[in-house]
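We modelled the chain as a single entity of 493 amino acids. Its sequence is:
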Amino acid sequence: MHRSSSSFIRLAVTLAAIALVSLAAAACSSAKAEPTQVTKPAATSAPAIQPTAPPHVVSADTGNQAGVTYTLETTIGGAGFAFKGKGGDIDGKLNPDLTAALGATVQVTLADGDGVQHNIAFPDFGAQAADVVTKGASSVAVFKADKEGMFAYFCAIPGHRQAGMEGKLIVGSGAIAQAVQGVSVVREPTDLPGPIGPRGPQNVKLDLEAVEVVGNLADGTTYNYWTYDGRVPGPFFRVRVGDNVEVHMKNNAANKNVHSTDLHAVTGPGGGAVFTQLAPGQENSFTFKALNPGLYVYHCATPMVANHISNGMYGMILVEPEGGLPAVDKEFYVMQGEIYTQAEMGKKGPQEFDVKKLLNETPEYFVLNGAVGSLTAQHPLKAKVGDKVRIYYGVGGPNFTSAFHIIGEIFDRVYNLASLTSPAQTDVQTTLVPPGGATAVEFKLEVPGRYILVDHALSRLERGLAGFLFAEGPDNPEVFKGTAPTGSGSGGH
């Protein structure tokens, strides 16, 4: 079967291409912080990088604290772009933790080891090294570590941070950053029950609990999530057409707000919400008959409904048709959402909900399974070459339609709008999923490598929306082969 992949699958430089990055486009990027102290990139004929003294730097105010120096070299590896430590305790480590005493002057030399355009930014300190463009070039950032905590450093070329170029700078004890750490709200994509199998209709009970929790939205950033069972999305339920379903919902006594649930699989007013408007500490049940097979979204329906949804209160229920769905090797559960914070994306510390941004439909974050990095750094999807994969994909929203696409794959079958009884669409590149809607897609993995789940409204990648699917197995040169040009830094998208 034909695949729309390119050589970036093996070299894992995909996200740079997803972000519409090429060397030409990156050169004119405006997404850079104002540098404090930098040197110009070295000439293209510079010798190979060595972990020795950095080039000349116009020094920042050093104060009375001793300085610390680091050298990081850019590299392309199996997991994407990265910074690789050179010398000392960080030698050979990818995206190493850098440490500095409070008040110390920090000097970081960036060495281009892959021939791709990069830079390095420390936005919390207003520092950014100049771009390096050719292999062997280098530049330097210098700043004073004048606040304690844990801070991100990353490449500010669009898409490169998402492709893996991000690490931590720990100043002092890092205690301030630790104080704002929440819990993980991410639901793993493999957390779903298996197929029901051949059976007749039964009585089934589903349990839901509304839980308000301070969770990790991004590295060093927390948010007050409203969830079902402490995870985003809520639990994946699986019933059979004809089942009599009892839904039991509880609102945790520690919560501060009324919550409810509306299941799109329900035939009846409010989808169950009229029976589940629960104050903290209350619980109640209702029953419904699963009349229509399909994959359905459920969500909180307590006013303001969009607020409850954007804070994380959504999930999916699969009503299997009689006889079930065709067998596959792997199934995954993925949902897309939006988060509206008062501060701009990337701000560290606790973040608060912004109702104006919600009403204006201007989210700061687009996420898969609740948080930035949920299906990349934390819980990527994993399968083997030859596996037939099915992804249940839903959009909690509350506002944006998704153009669901997997870079390097073509969907063999798409259950459009999650209709399981209509003929499946075949050979689909991208499928639209509206807010409060879902789809199920199937495909066979032919080639090993890393595939990227995106909403093809690709600006949303820059706001956190991406997932990885790693396929392990032997090469398949009859389907896909090639050699990446040295230092190209761009993929096929």
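As a brief sanity check on the tokenised model: The chain has six helices and 29 strands. The helical segments are 8-11, 14-18, 23-27, 175-179, 305-310, 355-360.
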